[in-house]
Design goal:
308 residues, alpha+beta, Beta-lactamase, six-stranded mixed sheet, three-stranded antiparallel sheet, 38% helix, disordered N terminus
């Protein structure tokens, strides 16, 4: 009997650790689920989405627990990793960093610096989140202790499926399959919700991270389907076969969080009409109109938008 009870206890602990704890008790929004399923039907690839209304705790999900590439959404757990290091006093927040050519990954902003350029750490964090700068992100990943340290933080906080793969010992196979990072739509959405609710590391650290997430240069997909007067915290990602985005929308009738991700896309064109981008915009519009049915705001037609 003792061994049986012990087995049940261990299973329960494992289950709790494998799920984000922020959501609590939820109910299913069946009407929204049907709308999302209809919009996703016929997509040439795999797609998943998780939506939670943070006011009512109603959820809608389609393939929400399937694992997808994060692409640049991996920069959210990197943000948690570097801010955790700072909070522990192992890294100084306002320190001045010196860029070296050996750090260069691509020709983004940080990768275009001259050797010996001096820059404050908070500016690198800002570039990682707002501009999705890859060289800066890998620099911060290393400063956070590497992917293994970030993954341990994720595991300690109940995220069993979000992982940093690139430059992380023991994760070459995962990197070959998913790229820099991997996640489920549910876990990435709940990670951002955790930050929004002041539960990541500390209320003060969560607030700083949430302010960074609220400064987005790349606003052409999900964000473009929400009025510009609405506060949004977000991070998007894209590689050839996968597109993704996670957002918290501060809607008039209640905040909501959602994460949409794709993989194995047939359409790999880097154009605004890429099927993944189109799907993300469509789903974002559906969710906004579902929660705000009386909103008289409409996004500009594609032909009138100033894309950059």
């Amino acid at each position: 009997m003792r061994n049986y009870l012990l087995s049940i206890l261990l299973f329960s602990v494992s289950f709790v650790n494998a799920q984000p704890s922020a959501a609590g008790k939820t109910t299913v929004d069946h009407k929204l689920v049907k709308k999302l399923e209809a919009a996703m039907a016929g997509f040439k690839g795999d797609a998943g989405i998780y939506v939670r209304n943070l006011k009512t705790n109603r959820v809608a999900e389609v393939n929400a627990d399937s694992v997808f590439p994060t692409a640049s959404m991996v920069k959210v757990p990197i943000l948690c990793g570097i801010l955790d290091k700072i909070n522990r006093g192992e890294v100084a927040f306002n320190q001045e960093l010196i860029y070296r050519d050996s750090l260069k990954y691509d020709n983004g902003i940080v990768g275009s610096f001259r050797d010996s350029t001096r820059i404050a750490l908070p500016k690198i964090v800002h570039l990682m989140i707002s501009q999705s700068d890859n060289t800066g992100s890998l620099w911060l990943q290393a400063m956070a202790g590497g992917g293994a340290t970030i993954n341990q933080w994720l595991d300690n906080n109940g995220f069993a499926n979000i992982r940093v793969n690139s430059r992380t010992p023991g994760r070459k196979e995962n990197q070959a399959k998913y790229g820099w990072g991997q996640t489920t739509p549910r876990e990435m959405a709940e990670l951002v919700a955790m930050i929004r609710n002041g539960k990541a590391i500390s209320p003060a650290v969560s607030e700083r991270m949430y302010r960074y997430l609220g400064m987005q240069f790349w606003d052409g997909e999900s964000i473009s389907q929400v009025p510009p007067t609405i506060k949004i915290a977000a991070k998007s990602g894209a590689v050839n076969q996968a597109k993704s985005e996670v957002l918290v929308i501060h809607a008039p009738h209640g905040d909501y969080v959602f994460c949409v991700a794709t993989k194995n896309q047939e359409d790999q064109a880097w154009q605004k009409n890429n099927e993944g981008y189109v799907l993300i915009r469509k789903l974002s519009a559906i969710i906004w109109n579902h929660f705000e049915p009386k909103s008289d705001w409409k996004p500009l037609p594609e032909s009138e938008k100033y894309w950059f």
